[in-house]
Prior knowledge:
The protein is an all-alpha fold.
Amino acid sequence: MTVTLIIILFAIALDRLFPDRGRVPPFVWYEDWARSVEQRFNAGTRGQGVAAVVVVAGPVILGVALIRYVLSHITYSLVYVFDILVLYLCLDLYRLTRQAVAVSESLESGDILMAATQLETLTAKTTGDVTESSIAQTTVEAVLKQANTAIMAPLFWFILFGPVAVVLQRVAALLDRLWGHRNTRFAEFGWAAARLDDILGWVPARITALSYGIMGSFEDALHCWRRQAGMWSDINSGPLLASGFGAMHMSACEEPEDDDAPGLSETRGFVVNAADIRRVVALLWRVLLFWLAVAVLMAGARLFGVFG
């Protein structure tokens, strides 16, 4: 546990020092490769989607496992360095918080178009309604969801199964973003990528959602989670968003009056603004620091023989 904690702290420190990865995002080449595989495999069936996931994810996973195996036969110091680098490449803490704060700063200065552009960079999606409240709400939702995908889930799987598992989780999230769209082109082909990402994100998403409550308003978070998680079709986004909004007192959590009820803040009379973006970033930091503190206490207890 102590070694794992040290690796995590070093990875977070690297992410703080080099959040842009030398201005070369680590998965850009991988996205290009995944798109080329999709163009060759996608004929609209689930079987082809499963095969494409294996072709795209398999070599990377095997490569990480092989490199770590070879390094373990040289010296374990190299293994630790390799683990730090892998986790560092899979984490996205400072990029996420920095881009969210940039959106908030643009909104505070009245530059709506710049905020919309920065939001598109954050979400990798085209911004629809360009108003302060819509941009702020979309940013808050993006932070609540990406906190799990880019931070908590990688840490969760790294702690359990090491670098191979964390790379699989990040690859699954990337393929879901590329192929898991709910449209005609990916309706069947993207099924495997979407389900793999759902499975790998299921437990971390609920730990993250619970953490929002612990570091925010616990009663409101659980209340909103219970009542509103079903408002989103994504099995992991529902708990994250409902708990997150509840933890920050941004929803009254009444039951929707009809099945076609609009978004959470619209139905509850809460207008999201730039300040709320900073609040959700602060919530994310509290969650991360909370679990790091728990890990430090557990490592200290084991070091001094409390757990034998």
